[in-house]
Design a protein that fits this description.
A hairpin with a 2-residue loop joins strand 7 and strand 8 (137-140). The protein is built from five helices and 13 strands. An eight-stranded mixed beta sheet has the order 7-8-9-6-10-13-12-11, with helices on one face. The protein has helices at 10-15, 37-54, 81-96, 118-129, 174-183; strands at residues 22-24, 27-33, 59-63, 66-71, 100-101, 108-115, 131-134, 137-140, 148-152, 163-168, 187-190, 197-201, 207-211. With 217 residues, the protein is of the alpha+beta class. The two termini are 18 Å apart.
Length: 217
């Protein structure tokens, strides 16, 4: 692809064959497990050096025996070939350090508020969270909190559930989560929008959506 700033579709990212990585909630993510904290920190240092050399910088999260890496091209608001190239470099470094990719645990949570008037509610939630409103989403400036997304709905009277969780997963992980949720007493409410998202409910009827990148452009 000639333009390094051109946004890639979810299918293009999936077709890139990055075995260690998954597209989850708009970011290309990987988790590498290591034998201890020192080895995770060493891998993080090497990833940082590669990022500096490429002038393209990921978000890193270090835990004991684990390094999480998240990639996106913030200047264009999505995934580009720059992210794919750096992902390949990170995977190569991880292999050299003996780190192991754990794609099965990758996930991200987005909070969704059903409302017919996002414009009116947005400023309040931005103030409460000390965040910024970008169209239909409130994000905190640090990036540490889940995004709050205003999902458009018809106007309605209370009571009605307004908040629900959007849990974003790699596509191949969805059925496992559905099976576990049903086994725990929940139920599948709807798969009408699958594979974009599935709606589940807990025993009291509180709903949650399991979401993937599929059929989203």
């Amino acid at each position: 692809m000639s333009d390094p700033r051109q946004l890639l579709t979810g299918q293009q990212v999936a077709d890139a064959g990055l075995a260690d990585w998954r597209l989850v909630l708009g970011s290309l993510r990987a988790r590498f497990t290591t034998d201890d904290f020192a080895s995770a920190a060493r891998l993080a240092r090497r990833v940082g050096e590669a990022a500096e050399a490429a002038n393209h910088h990921p978000d890193l999260g270090i835990r004991w025996g684990r390094l999480d890496v998240s990639l996106s091209s913030h200047d264009v608001g999505g995934i580009t070939v720059r992210d794919l190239d750096l992902a390949r470099s990170v995977s190569r470094l991880a292999a050299e350090e003996g780190a192991r990719a754990d794609v099965g645990s990758l996930q991200a949570v987005e909070i969704a508020l059903d409302t017919a008037d996002a414009e009116r509610l947005g400023p309040f939630w931005a103030a409460v969270l000390e965040g910024t409103v970008d169209s239909d989403t409130v994000r905190d400036r640090s990036g540490d909190l889940p995004a709050l997304w205003f999902q458009g709905t018809e106007a309605h009277d209370e009571p009605r559930q307004r908040f629900h969780l959007d849990v974003w997963l790699p596509p191949e992980q969805v059925q496992r989560r559905i099976d576990a949720a049903v086994a725990a007493g929940g139920r599948l409410v709807s798969d009408a929008e699958a594979p974009s998202f599935w709606v589940l409910a807990d025993p009291d009827g509180n709903k949650v959506c399991l979401c993937t990148w599929q059929e989203r452009g």
